[in-house]
From TrEMBL:
The keyword Nucleotide-binding does not apply. Keywords: Membrane, Transmembrane, Transmembrane helix. This is Diguanylate phosphodiesterase. Residues 23-276 form the EAL domain. It comes from Alishewanella longhuensis.
Amino acid sequence: AKARGKNTYRFFSQELNDAANERLLIESQLREAIREQQFILFYQPKIDLRTETLVGYEALIRWLRPDNTLIPPARFIAVAESTGLIVQIGEWIILEACRFLARQVSRGYAVTVSINLSARQFHDNNLPGMIERIIKRTGVAPTALVFEITESMLMGDTDAAIKQLNQLKRLGVSLSIDDFGTGYSSLSYLKRFPVDELKIDRSFVKDIPDDQNDMDIVAAIIAMAQKMQLRVVAEGVESAAQANFLKQNACYLVQGYYFSMPLAEQELSHLTFTIKT
Ligand code: C2E
Ligand code: CA
Ligand code: CA
Ligand code: CA
């Protein structure tokens, strides 16, 4: 039994070691990335199909390594989250996104900026105060800021979540539920949360117009959002057919590769949309 236990241990420990080592490596590299300011925000346009104008941007983080490789958030956000480094990185994201917004406004562009919050960040009691300080420091209008959270962050201690949402709302910012439809929130649940916007997850958009089931779901989410007087945004729009379907079903706010990939700030001037001023 001892021998088997040992073998079992060795078998698992090797895998655990690899995973743990990988995590440790990413963690130490992330600390260095924070020190050396290796993060960069990309911005994806949010379009209003009624006017075909650019109405805002979603800030999306990337990690630009010294060797010039661009690491997507899927490769490091989870480690940043589990190590708590996300709090520091997250503060930088909010400051940087607000500075970007201030620059856009100073050029005469009336745009909003959407910022993704991670679970740890959202549950941090210091978050509202931190956002308030950044708003003051950068001079941006809080009404031009949208904070995106996911359904799963609202589960668990819902009273605490509602309290935090209300603290954020008091700042004058808007709140959006990201990846809507992929979590487990029921409608009665949703009604309790003081949010302004729903973002339909890409997984429901990607097979339009081939998947009738997905089209029914998307139409139902749009109708529900309207009933609840929530703004509705579709993400991951990659084709004219998808954009047309959304427009016909009265979902006018869209993001996706069909309009633009997320771009570095210096590339945004090449965009051909009309920008509302
Ligand atoms: P998300 O918030 O759902 O962001 C949308 C993702 O879909 C982005 O990937 C975006 O580049 C991608 N995307 C946009 N349009 C299309 C499309 O038409 N087709 C396809 N296939 N993809 C599209 P990205 O930038 O790699 O971000 C992945 C996830 O990482 C985000 O999902 C978000 O959960 C997280 N993330 C990104 N930036 C931040 C950040 O600043 N803070 C936090 N906490 N999380 C972030
Ligand atoms: Ca998002
Ligand atoms: Ca999303
Ligand atoms: Ca998504």
